[in-house]
Amino acid sequence: MRKLSIIILIFVIGGFWGCSSSKKSFESGNYYVSVMQSVSKLRKSPNHKKSRETLSQAYPMAVDYYQAQVTRMKDSQDRFKNGKIVDAYKMLNNMHDEIRRSPAALQVIPNPEDFYNQLKYHNREAAAERYTAGEEAFAMGTRPYAIEAYEHFIQSDLYMPGYLDVKDKIEEAKYYATLKVLVEQVPVPTMQAGLSAQFFQDQIEQFLFNYQDNEFIRFYSMRDENLKDPDQILVFQFDDFVVGQVNNQERIIEASKDSVIIAKMPKSSVQSETQTEQKIVICHKPPGNPTNTQTIEVTASNLKAHLDHGDEIGPCNGDSGNSSVSVPKEEYINVYATVKATFRENSRQVISRGLLSMRIMDAKSNTVVFHEKFPGEFVWVNKWGSFNGDERALTPEQIRIANQRPMQPPPPQNLFIEFCKPIYGQVQSKVRSYYHNL
User: Fold this and answer.
1) pTM (2 d.p.)
2) Which residues pair with 235 in a beta bridge?
3) What is the pLDDT of residues 190-229, one digit of tens each?
4) What is the pLDDT of residue 192?
5) Which of 249, 245, 238, 192 lies closest to 351 in space, CA to CA?
6) What's the CA gap between 118 and 47, in Å, rounded?
7) How many C-beta neighbours within 10 Å does residue 155 have?
8) Residue 268, pLDDT score
9) Which residues contact 73 (CB under 8 A, 6 or more apart)?
10) Do 377 and 295 meet the contact criterion of CB atoms below 8 Å apart?
């Protein structure tokens, strides 16, 4: 029951809103919108009383309003008055058509008036006035006026498609309105066998020959035989060019880290703190004769030196007990010390860079109207290394580098492509900004 009440409420609000909108439009003087809203409501609810009342009032007032506009424009000196008359008649015909498509609206306005004959006449007159304006602008002989002429001819064709020779006029005006730019790419000097700039040059041309930011700019290839008289010449040339410059470096770093756990030992191995220095029980393996092990005590300060040449904390396995050292079984404790390592880092950089010059020349005067240079660089880096000492003294990055091996750099062609990528982005941005409003 509650859901049913909500649904009914939604319909009531929708109906009230539709009626309220058309009534509000009528009261604000927007008779055309009021008519269209009323008809739309009657199409859904043919017996809607408020919409019928609003339509009966709004339609005649809308007709009077637009007919008054037509009369006023006919008496005016406006150069394009027929185009504005066409707009008024279109509004009148829109109301006529919408009412005809609604049986309920036809009951309110049985004979809506159409103005198609008047619209046809003034469409021709509007096409003529735009055509004349286009010819006058084109006769001025400059590119800005050719753009203006093109827009007039386009509008003329919209009023009456195929009016006189307007199609040819559109093409002619578009040709002279378009800034024609010849693209010249100076070949990259061959500094290495097999190196080609064709990939970069193809990217530049693909961008330029598909340029659509400004419909009055067109770029032409040197291979295009259709262009006889360019307005500008766009020249791309590498002023500086290096691929594969190698830079080798080596660093030696003495690494250390404090408070590193170097071993665990039985608590019984450490004598009383009241003594001058702690003693630790270890299994000593004499240099040159590691099998002749012996359980001994060493001071804590000498422990690491013994561990470094292979001794172990705790008594030797299988000790007969003849040693004077007594090793009770107890829990183990950590032994801390400073660990050290000598880290050797090798680095190889392969540097590739170039400087692209972009010049825009006026084809008539052969003068430079714009010049800018765009740098690009790509650095390929390979790091590898080694170390002596305790690995725990190294950082995670040093350990990663120590596990690397020397690598061969990419082929020169790949290096060239990589350093050209930032240049290509800069060229795109500059071309767009320069030609956007020309």
Assistant:
1) 0.69
2) 184, 359
3) 555 566 778 888 999 999 999 999 999 999 998 888 788 8
4) 56
5) 245
6) 34
7) 19
8) 59
9) 81, 84, 85, 88
10) no
Give the span between the Cα atoms of 418 and 10, in whole angstroms.
62
- Count other C-beta atoms under 10 Å from residue 303's C-beta: 21
| Amino acid 32: pLDDT | 97
CB distance 359 to 408 below 8 Å: no
User: Which residue, chain included where needed, has tokens 């006029």?
Assistant: 169
Q: Which amino acid is at 101?
A: R
As a whole number of angstroms, the distance between CA 96 and CA 102 comes to 10
Low-confidence ranges of the chain (pLDDT < 70): 1-20, 189-195, 263-278, 318-331
Q: Which two tokens stand for residue 399?
A: 């350990």
Could you give the CA distance from residue 316 to residue 322 in angstroms, rounded to a whole number? 12
Residue 171 CB: number of other CB atoms within 10 A?
11
The residue length of the chain stands at: 438
The first and second tokens of residue 392, run together, are: 């725990």
* 324, two tokens: 């004077």
CB count within 10 Å of CB 425 equals 12
Instruction: Tell me the H-state helices in 277-384.
Output: 303-308
Note the pLDDT of residue 320. 46
For residue 75, list its beta bridge partners: none
Report which residue type is found at 346.
N
**Distance, CA of 137 to CA of 143 (rounded, Å):** 10
83: number of CA atoms within 13 Å, CB side? Answer: 16
- Name which of 131, 233, 129 is nearest 186 in CA terms: 233
Coil, strand, or helix at residue 368? strand
Name the CA radius of gyration of the chain, rounded.
45
* Cβ contacts of 88-93, under 8 Å, gap ≥ 24: 89/115, 89/118, 89/119, 89/122, 90/119, 91/32, 91/62, 91/66, 92/62, 92/63, 92/66, 92/67, 93/119
Tokens of 139: 């006769």
- Whether the CA torsion 289, 293, 296, 298 is positive or negative: it is positive
| Alpha helices by DSSP H, 288-385 | 303-308
